[in-house]
Amino acid sequence: GGWACLHGRYWWSPATERPCGACGVDRRPTRGTAAAAAAAAASLPPSDRPYVKRLGSSNSLRGMLGGGSSNHGSSGSLVPGSRAGSRHSSPMPSRPSRPSSPTMPSSPSPSQPRPQPLPSAPESLPPPPSSVDPERRGAKGAVLNGLGRVQDALDFRGWDGRPQFEGKEGLGRVAAIATILGLILGSHLTLLLLVNLHTFGFVPIDLLSNLNPGTLDMIHRWLAYAVVLSSFHLSEFFVTALYNPTVTTADSFVVNQSLAYTAAAVMSWIEFWVRFVACPGFNLAWTRWVGAMLVTMGQVVRTAAMATCGESFNHVIQRRRKDNHVLVTYGVYRYLRHPSYFGFFYWSVGTQLLLGNPLCTVAYACASWTFFQRRIPYEEATLGRHFPEEYPEYRAGSYVGIPFLRLDED
Fold first, then answer.
1. What is the pTM of this model?
2. Transmembrane residues, as ranges (predicted)?
3. Burial of 389 (C-beta count, 10 Å sphere; 0-12/13-18/19+)
4. What is the pLDDT of residue 28?
5. What is the pLDDT of residue 133?
């Protein structure tokens, strides 16, 4: 048989250009005889060998690579020396004659060295580190491991062997996250509409009529919060897909951004439902409206920042300047030099005011402020290295907008 990456997507060419998106093997997809593929695989350095496995039939590779449409979205054929998914104007090179048996590869000629079999490889790469630590003990360990299991679920841990789900580039993972967020948004938006119609007397609902005003207010708050939260994560993905499509993955939903983010969300839900059961009437009406205004302002500013920045925006700080990176100083960036951080800071605090959570409102404000106090100076130093002439002048004429941050030269 031939040689392929662990997921059976590529087999080897001497040129190294395109990695397998699932297992990271750095080889270009190609066509050729099984013997040529095996010989090329045998010439790989030892560091690459654990990432390959032997396939039982060269026809299985031909079915994956030669037949049907390309996985790379182009009607062009994949040939040696061409880029994956590109159109190739020259005809396909003629193939050597194939043996009559569909399952037996051709034997090398006496003058051709017989390729040596590579060491057996594991069927899948090790999964990413789990957020669950068996060494944790006591109540604190139980809580942390419980949060870790939630984080592992958000990271799709345990989906090994399913290429469309195990990697962040997989369309299956994107579809699963989008479906869940869409269901949350649609169901809560429908219920919110019904509650509003009942509140304003358009559609009386007997079930809601029997609730006291405090309980009804908290139901309204939770429905609005769920709409805001799901809309935020959906917008993160779709805005990235529209304006910076080359870096769009399932991680662009930012539902799995960190264990700290997951823990903060869970803590806010716990506070809300404890209040819902224990003291549903203890709510300040103004917090709902202030929270709604902060959430709206934060979402609009952050979305505008991502759209304006385009390909220069990334959810992860880029330590190296890319060719398409430019210093954006127009639009919302004319006044705020970190508008996405500005938007997220006020959005996160606004969500807790919207829920009416007094403890988490303070905790979110402090945690967000601490995070940006560390991140913004580092990012500004990075931007200063990327744009040593433009950034100091731009920095002097713009604002951060997050109160009490200690930044040099502000």
1. 0.68
2. 174-202, 222-243
3. exposed
4. 42
5. 80
